[in-house]
Amino acid sequence: MSVDAPSVRPFLFSEVTELVSRGGGCGGCFDAEVNAEWTIGGKPNGGYLLGMMGRAAVAVGAHDHVIAASAHYLHSPVPGPVVIEATVLRAGRSASQLRARLSQDDEACVEALVTTSHLTSTDEPYWDEGLPPLSQVAYEDCTRLVPSTPDGLRVAIMGQVDVRLEPESSAFKTGRPTGTGELRGWLALPGDEGFDPSSLLFAVDAFPPATFDIEYSGWVPTLELTVYVRALPSPGPVRVLQRAQLIDGQRVDESCYVWDRTRRLVAQGSQLAGIRLG
Amino acid sequence: MSVDAPSVRPFLFSEVTELVSRGGGCGGCFDAEVNAEWTIGGKPNGGYLLGMMGRAAVAVGAHDHVIAASAHYLHSPVPGPVVIEATVLRAGRSASQLRARLSQDDEACVEALVTTSHLTSTDEPYWDEGLPPLSQVAYEDCTRLVPSTPDGLRVAIMGQVDVRLEPESSAFKTGRPTGTGELRGWLALPGDEGFDPSSLLFAVDAFPPATFDIEYSGWVPTLELTVYVRALPSPGPVRVLQRAQLIDGQRVDESCYVWDRTRRLVAQGSQLAGIRLG
After folding, report:
1. What sign results for the dihedral spanned by CA atoms A48, A49, A55, A58?
2. A13-118+136-274 belongs to CATH 2.40.160.210
3. How far is residue B150's CA from residue B144's CA, in Å, rounded to a whole number?
4. What is the pLDDT of residues A79-118, one digit of tens each?
5. What is the model's pLDDT at position B3?
6. Which terminal Cβ of chain A has fewer Cβ within 10 Å, N or C?
């Protein structure tokens, strides 16, 4: 099938979130680099930044996996060097809590709180009847997004990650949104890298705003993003549902659900974002 | 109609979240007191603690209303004195971000990030079709919860706040949960105090766990709680929907929706909690 080939080389998630310990007096301080291709209109994706911060939290804390992360966005960094500082707030037996800050040129850009623990991938869920229905459309029957919006904004990140929307969720691309406020499809990382709890922090923010299925609005900047990681994902692409609930006072909330190929719910996100509607 | 009268005097939300500035070297430090009646089995309600922290954030920041708050719970304080420290991370034109910490005897209990802004109550929502359907059962047709669980745990807070469940949501009280994982009803504060953005932080955690409508499990401790305040509420009680989505790995996530008497969605919550099922 025909897809839009990226015009630049793929940058792996593990590569664009690489951390170099600063050592010295700050054990939890890392140098990192915001990649210019993981951006929307030149601004880095919020889930990508949180994924970096999740990696820092796991590197510093006593537990392997992020299970909950909440980020408040202060100021968008530009591509280039950033510093991430992770601080252990409490190291418990079954879970730890950490604080993480991402800054650039000494200006705070993102603050996050992270709870880490140990996830398993073997057990079945105990009860899952409160989840939205799982879509049945196959990966092969979805169409990859191109790296630009309907009004010509460059969305470089879509040249990196493989976001494929179901035919019904693609209506906005021709100016005819369904009005339902839902986008369904698949997500794969560059180089088909497998997902882990840190990259799932990105996955819940990878899709376009679900409001595109209501009305196109330009940039929808994330103000707050909360992610729960529920299980270790199986290898391969993940199925995503991005859903808007309420647009009020020029803000929208969106929920996101991420299932792995075994149809297990592996991550959930909720975000509050600014929107130029209403 | 007959309700269970509280055995102690009502303690208003404004009273149990009262802050006394410490002054001196710490402009954002406050003394507060966790009220022994705002507890479940002797432990304070998590939303109540976040409500205190929201008040501290508003007292310190440049904006009037909390619009987003995310808390990670480290260690449950006991009733008695606590210290809340609020720090401005960024003071913007239309919004500010703050960090808040609640500690007791120098031990960190709750860490939160808070975004504040200015909410209005006049405009209509622009789009609200992604919200769950609003229940139609009147306040008068709901039954007030008593201050104890089916297995005899004292839930002192139910002697303070007025949580009324719809008949269909009350099935768990007689050992016959519906299995839907939803609790619907009404919430009023002691003394019929009106809600504001800080008490809405409590409102999204006021109901019993929605998992009681699946299977009774004892205490369900909140690990993370995120709240979005969407509009200033009208006076009077609020309508609440508490909904479980997934129980997996001895954790459950719950969503909460809060509408005011004018049927406007005024707050949304999501939480991850521990649960002894599975």
Report:
1. negative
2. yes
3. 14
4. 999 999 999 999 999 999 999 999 999 999 999 999 999 9
5. 47
6. N
The pTM assigned to this predicted structure is 0.96
Collect all residues with Cβ–Cβ distance below 8 Å to B188 and sequence separation of at least 6. B161, B162, B236, B237, B238
Q: Where do the H-state alpha helices sit in A78-222?
A: 197-203
Q: Does A88 touch chain B (CB under 8 A)?
A: no
Lowest mean pLDDT among A105-109, A204-208, B117-121, B271-275: B117-121
Residue type, A50: L
| DSSP bridge pairs for A247 | A252, B127
Is residue B74 a contact partner of residue B193, using CB atoms and an 8 Å limit? Answer: no
Contact A111 B89 (CB under 8 A): yes
User: Rounded to whole angstroms, how far apart are CA atoms A39 and A41?
Assistant: 6
Does A130 contact chain B (CB < 8 Å)?
yes
Residues in chain A: 278
**Residues whose CB falls within 8 Å of the CB of residue A80, separated by 6 or more in sequence, listed in order:** A33, A34, A104
**Contact criterion met (CB < 8 Å) for A70 and B113:** yes
B72: contact with A, CB 8 A cutoff:
yes
Question: What are the tens digits of pLDDT across the range B112-125?
Answer: 999 999 998 667 89
**Do B95 and A223 count as a contact with CB atoms less than 8 A apart?**
yes
Is CATH 1.20.1260.10 what the domain over B13-119+137-274 is classified as, yes or no? no
Provide the β-strand partners of residue A88.
A98
Stretch 9-48 of chain B: residues touching chain A, C-beta under 8 Å: none
Read off the pLDDT of residues A2-26 as tens digits, 9 standing for 90 and up: 445 446 899 999 999 999 999 877 8
